[in-house]
Structure formats: C-alpha cells, structure tokens
Amino acid sequence: MPLTIVDALTDVLELSPDHRDVLISRIAARPDPDDLAQDLGSAVGLPDIDPPQPRTAVVLARIPEKRMRAAGSLVTATLVPVELSALDDGWSLLQPTTDAETSDELAIIVGTALQAGNLGHRRRRVLLLWRGEGATSGAMVFHRSRMLASMVWSSSWTEPALSGWEVRDEITEEFARLSRDRPVDSARLRALFRSDDVPGDPLTTLVDVLGVPPEAIAALDRTPSAPARETPAPVGFWRYLWALLNGADSSERIPRSWAIGFGALALVVTGVFAVMLALGIAVLATDGTVVDEHGSTIEDRVATAVFAVATLVHLMMSIRFFRLGRRDR
Question: Within 10 A of 125 (CB to CB), how many other CB atoms are there?
C-alpha cells in the first residue's frame, strides 16, 4: 500500500506514530481483508465496527392482555422463553428471558397479533426498547411485520443515513404515532431524536413523552420496582390462532372474513378426513376386499380411529368459526 494511503488513514483515524508503524507492518503481511480489519481494530484501538446488540429488551403494545399472552405463548414455543407483564392504561409487555437479540422477531409476532383483533387495533404500533453494553440503548417501532423506524443512543459509531434533521424528524413522527390517543410534546420528542448522545437516560425520556407507563423501564432494567411477571405456557401456531379467535368477546371481535375463511378451510379439511374415514370403514367392513387386500390389519383399525377423531375435531372447528362469523358486528 502506498505510504500516501497510510498517511491518509493515519489522519482519518488520528493514529499515533506507533500505531502508524503497526498499520504498515500489518498491511505488509498481506492478510485476509476481514482479518486485517480485526487486527487493525484491536491494534489501533478502533471501536467495535459491529452494530450494538441488545443485552436486555422489552416489547410493548396497547393490546388486550389475553392477546399479548397468546403471542407470548407462541414465542415461548417457537423462539425464546418470554415473560408477560400487564401495565397501566392498557399496555402489555413481553420480555425475552434468555436471548434479547431475538426481540425484533418478538416484536413482529406481537405486531401480527394486533391484526387478529378488531379494526381499532390494526393501526397500532409496537414499541421495542433495548439496552446494550455500556450506556448504549435504542428503540424501534414496528407495524405488523415491518420495522418502521429505529434509533440508537450512545453508540460508538454514527450512522450517516441519520445525519440529516429531516430523517430524524421522520423517525420522530413514526414514534409519535405510538401515542395516538393523547397529545405529544413534539418539540421535546424531536430534540431527543436529533441527538445521538443525550443527558440522562433517553429511554426514560422517550416513555415519558409517549405516555408509556414508567414500569416499562423498571421491567427493562429488572429493578425491584418492576411489575409482576408471568411466563405464558408454550403453544404451537394453530393453538395460538385458536386462542386468538376463540378468545374474542363483544368488545374485541375478529374480522368476519377471518372467521368465515377459517370456517371454510376447516370444512374442506373435514371433508378430506371424512372421505378417509369412509374408506377405512369400508376396508374394515369388507375385510380388505374394497381395496383388493386379503384381510384388514391393526394399522387399518388405528387409521380409521384417527380419521374419526380428526373428522369430529375439524367439524367442531368449522362450526365454531361459522358461528363467530355470524355474530352481529
């Protein structure tokens, strides 16, 4: 590498003469580019080039507690164990207990759970708060399965894409929509997002401006004043879906099209199982003659019993879905 480039790097990185010599020797060894970056980072004291990762995180939404519990049960079964806390003013909170780096996936599942409610829930956003190593912290806003905006405070690096005030103000507007039922101090919120390093705790300021219960920060930091927690029992996707649909009440109805659609799907599956049941009964009744077999087997009896149970279960499901669809809206 020409010494002019070394001199340019020395100026950009503000390296001492000793570090400049280290830079020259490492480059002269012609290592792999990735190894060179790591070696130089450790040799000249560069901050970590990897983005900060959550050490602890919470996901919040103004969503009925039973829906948040259903989402938590699915997450516990498919992603990581989580804990549920009910906060004031209709807010609910989920917190990963093992791997906080999966919190964005958790937020997507909660955003999807919002869509299973009535139309009043569908425009609501999900808030993700996290803390990393040192004083690093951040926040994200999700709608359905999409991350709309994010911010990191006290990180070692500044992201060029966030350098303009116009971009920062757009991020501010996305976060302000979390507080759609109350006025927001826009000037205070804008000032918070225009700075990468603010005095005090930016997350405490954020929840205060947005009207999020302050217990969210206590839960994030697991302080003695943290709200009570419970661990939702793990359930699979179909049980999760059934919990969302079956748990709907007069104030929180699922969309009629959802109920009718799932009822029709369950009825089709019921028909398939009924055909298999009829075939199994015919095999047993004719001692295998109907399928050109010499006698029936124990497997035929077990399969017939399984199809009988499956037919009954799916028939009950289809009836339940159609009843939900016929309710007055």
Answer: 23
Domain ranges of the chain: 3-44, 56-237, 256-326
Q: Under a CB-based contact definition with an 8 Å cutoff, are residues 40 and 21 in contact?
A: no
Query: In the chain, what is the greatest distance between 2 CA atoms, to the nearest angstrom?
Result: 94
Q: pLDDT by residue (tens digit) across 200-224? A: 899 999 999 999 999 999 999 999 9
The first and second tokens of residue 72, run together, are 């938590």
Inter-residue long-range contacts of 212-216, CB under 8 Å, 24+ positions, other chains counted: 212/60, 212/87, 212/91, 212/127, 212/178, 213/87, 213/88, 213/89, 213/91, 215/85, 215/87, 215/88, 216/58, 216/60, 216/87, 216/91, 216/93, 216/129
The Cα 267–Cα 301 span in angstroms is 24
Share of the chain above pLDDT 90, in %: 23
Rounded to two decimals, the pTM is: 0.64
Over the stretch 29-60, which tens digit does the pLDDT of each residue have?
Answer: 766 666 666 666 666 666 666 677 889 999 99
- R_g of the chain computed on alpha carbons: 28
